Amino acid sequence: MSSLDISVTASGTDTVITVSGEIDLAVSADLRRAMEEELLFTPAALIADLSTVSFCDSSGFTALVQVRAKAEEAGVPFVIVTRERALLRPMSLLGLDAVFTVHPTLDSARDALTR
């Protein structure tokens, strides 16, 4: 059984969804729903902070792609924060590094969004 913690911090400049644990089939739908719920509020930007995610399977990446598409539809910038090789390597192998905007830190993501 996977364990995934999701917390949301909303401000006037962005909404950060902080995720920790492992993203797999057992929890990917929960993650997608949590992010899509935040998109209903049309935040200025949606940031998925995956800095402490240690694993993500194909269902997790599918959920992230779906959220990115909904964010784009809503006109909301969507970025991912991570330095974790466990996420960056599969993203690269799957070609998702060309789909997602990824920043190494929350501060760098926010800096890029305000430019």
SSE blueprint:
Blueprint: E1 4-10, E2 15-23, H1 28-39, E3 46-56, H2 58-74, E4 78-81, H3 85-94, E5 101-103, H4 106-114
Parallel strand pairs: 2-3, 3-4, 4-5
Antiparallel strand pairs: 1-2
CA-to-CA gap between the ends?
41 Å
Low-confidence stretches: none
Over all CA atoms, what is the radius of gyration?
13 Å
Categorize the overall geometry: globular
Query: How would a textbook summarize the main sheet?
Result: 5 strands, mixed
Q: Widest sheet: strand order?
A: 1-2-3-4-5
Quickly give the structural class. Answer: alpha/beta
What would you note in describing this structure?
It contains 4 helices and 5 strands, in the order ββαβαβαβα. The longest helix is centred in the middle third of the chain and has 17 residues. The chain is an alpha/beta fold and 115 residues long. A 5-stranded mixed beta sheet has the order 1-2-3-4-5. The mean pLDDT is 95. Helix 1 packs parallel to helix 2. Helix 1 links the parallel strand 2 and strand 3.
Summarize the structure.
With 115 residues, the chain is α/β, with parallel strands linked by helices. It has helices at residues 28-39, 58-74, 85-94, 106-114; strands at residues 4-10, 15-23, 46-56, 78-81, 101-103. Strands 1-2-3-4-5 form a five-stranded mixed sheet.
